[in-house]
Amino acid sequence: MNIADAPATSTREHPRQHATNGIVASRLMPPAGSSTQLVRSALLDTLARAHASQAVRIVLIRAAAGYGKTTLMQQYAAHCGAHGIDASWLRLHSANNDLERLLLDLDAVLPGQRSASSADAIIDHIAAHDRPLAILFDDFDTIHSASVLAFVQTLIDALPPGAMLIVATRATPGLGVGRLRARGALLDIQSAALRFTLAEAGEYVREKCGLALDDTKLAALHHGTEGWATALYLATLSLRTHPDPGAFVDAFSGAHAELADYFAEEVFARQNEACRAFLLDTCVLPHFPAALCDALTGRGDARERLDELERSCLFLEPLDDERTVYRYHRLFASYLRHCLRAAQPQREANMHALAAQWYLALKRPVPAIDHLLDAGEPQRALAEISRHARTLMGAGRIRLMMGWLERIDANLIAAQPEVGLTYAWVLLLNRRYGDAMRATQTLVGDANAALESQVLRAVLHALTGQMDACIASGASLLAELPDRATFAGYTLCNALAFSYVSVQRYDEARGVLSRALGRSREHPFAVTRTMAETIEGIIDLLQGRLGTALARLDTALAGARAEQRGAGAAGSEGIAGGYTSVDAARALALYERNELDALRRLLANTLPRARSAGTTDALIATHVLSARSAWLAGDVDQWLRLLAELEQSGRVIESGRSVSAAWLERARVATLEGRLEAAGQALEIAELDGAWAHTGYAWHATEIDCPVVVRARLDIARRRDGEAEAALRVALDAALGQQRYWRALKLRILLSLALAGRGAADAALDELTQALRIASHERFVRAFLDEGPALLALLARWSARGAQATRAAGVAPGFVAQLLEAAEVGASCEPVAAAHTLSARELEVLRMLSAGHRNRVIAEKLFVSELTVKAHLRKINAKLGAQNRTQAVAIGRELGVIG
């Protein structure tokens, strides 16, 4: 160890280090940087801005062990050196609780010469410093001396303009933090800010550590570690040699050997006995208020313990602003449970049982059932599930219930027919169609099972696009059900009504919905009632009544939310929605209105739900609109990811329409970007799964973006206007005959473009007039904007006719001007063509690909690894919409970015 008072052999340069008795030299300077360190650019910018403001006197960097506090300070010290700012570093230790020792150490690191090292002399010297200054105190949690804390507070008050104190600590220090915050003199950087974002985790794992982890596993690793730097570092050490990185990520927990050692040495061992006991007693709880902790520990001091843990930054996260409910960091909680199992194997189950009893006493069955299952009491859990199944199903807790029932032995479920039928419905609504039918077959000897199995099959027909089959069996089944005020009865009504809508029998659909909604004053299943109201809104949308559709859907959602707020504890607790279909239909309406900000907010909540449960239309609408929103914002990578996800989901659930929808969107965008060869290829792939488009069914998610529309748009772009016109006229006649006026509007717009393309200017404007007459009163906007510059030019020509012609045509005043204005605003936000987003290095790689070079040769020419070349290739394919290197070269040549 390098000691400053050792014989004069040290070559380290530091002010007066050689004259300071007994100081460890490494404490007087920042630790050395590392090539694998991730530069925390955003946090460094925050620190630099705070320093430059001269208002912030102290930066408090407080978090548990391993969050990168020291690394951030080291990087800021380097920043100071590069920007002409004096930086004085001191890593504190317990001896610094002696004020004289602290003054001695501080004297060793401050710039300039002093004649004395008393508290006043040092304060005066710092106050007189005329250059920007950063004083960095690491490990401040070792300080508890009142005199030292008082000196530091005096130091903070005496700091001159341009000087700032930066303190890293594991615990909240006694420095009058509240007073400093109220004065605007404090910048408080806590663990939430220190966590690596997903992008930072990706850069660290892939670029710094050279590990080729795919997006899914990277996201899983980031989620599991919650961006905690030490956990990511320890995970990468194991990933370097692990034969199956994916399996390692899935299994990574606080019980991982290196991580467990870290927790044991750096965290758990540092706590007193009472604290350790509290942690072990409460670690089984996913989230907890103080009262629940008291129920488990029996000690009555939980509030004080939680306050202590929070002050100590001990991996405790508050879940509300009032700090009444908390959780532990996932990895820390799993480490604690590992310790508990090793020391007291039965205690974990006992604590879960106590927690279940506490929740049941409060009439909160959802967390109670969770804890009963964790306690190994499936019979009691089944009893609670059966007791609350009606409320939970009515509230749309489908995924929750599937998670429970999947954990219980199938024989136990089959022994209770009512629960067994509930399980079958849960499987069906989670797109587990085959499992749902098999579940009904195990319910032998139950009088309702056979009939309800037929109902399940009829609903299954509707969910899988067999609308005629649903109608054939559903109508008679509806009359046979003994008690229609059941989940099965209401769900069958919705399936039957949706099937009628799909075959354009709108009056019969409304009749079924009317009977379903009017059967009782108090509809017992909020989610099925909302679905019924949603189907009525979908009818309005298909028939071109956009304003009515949006109003009806908004009303349905408002009613659902009111029901949610007024529901009992069993149904309301933790509901994420259950109303995916109404949100997906609203998203389509909002998109047509061009209300893109509202659309993005809606999709952010709806897309995660649509991924795992709901109808095929909800799956398609949320993914396509989310992708389109990303494309409009210029995020081509996100557009590609969402469409790939939709395609994959479609293949998993065997929905050709979902697969086709993803490729139709690719073809649409390629056409608008002028990549006509790529558009043709995408359309051909879409039509491989395009049988759905020839059934005559009307599905709202694919009502507009269907093969006939996408092909007509492509034909117009290819100057095949005559072919497009012929196909559009046939499709338009069919749409008008079926009262599908939303589709008819889009077909008229494209027909006007086809007519204009072949020189029939007057006919084009007449066709456009009919489209505008309908659209202007319902406020359809995207139907026009989505056709790009050619349609906008035609609109401008139409607008030149003047106000009198507008009134004569029955078009709402100002509508065309609003369209042109919206197009002008959108033009300033148009996505950059994918090729233009290629970096210089990516263009270089693409050119080498076109020359026929393989990855190894490219790596040698660019002086990089083959792993880096592969990373470049992934980005190139994503940006160009290519499936392989051959397609990437072809698209690059078509766009003119390579020869």
Automatic annotation (TrEMBL):
Keywords: DNA-binding, Transcription, Transcription regulation
Domain HTH luxR-type: 831-896
Superkingdom classification of source: Bacteria
Pfam families: GerE, TPR_MalT, WHD_MalT
GO MF annotations, alphabetized: DNA binding
UniProt-recorded name of the protein: LuxR family maltose regulon positive regulatory protein
SMART domains named in the record: HTH_LUXR
CDD domains noted in UniProt: LuxR_C_like
UniProt xrefs under Gene3D superfamilies: P-loop containing nucleotide triphosphate hydrolases, Tetratricopeptide repeat domain, Winged helix-like DNA-binding domain superfamily/Winged helix DNA-binding domain
Signal peptide annotation: none
GO BP annotations listed: regulation of DNA-templated transcription
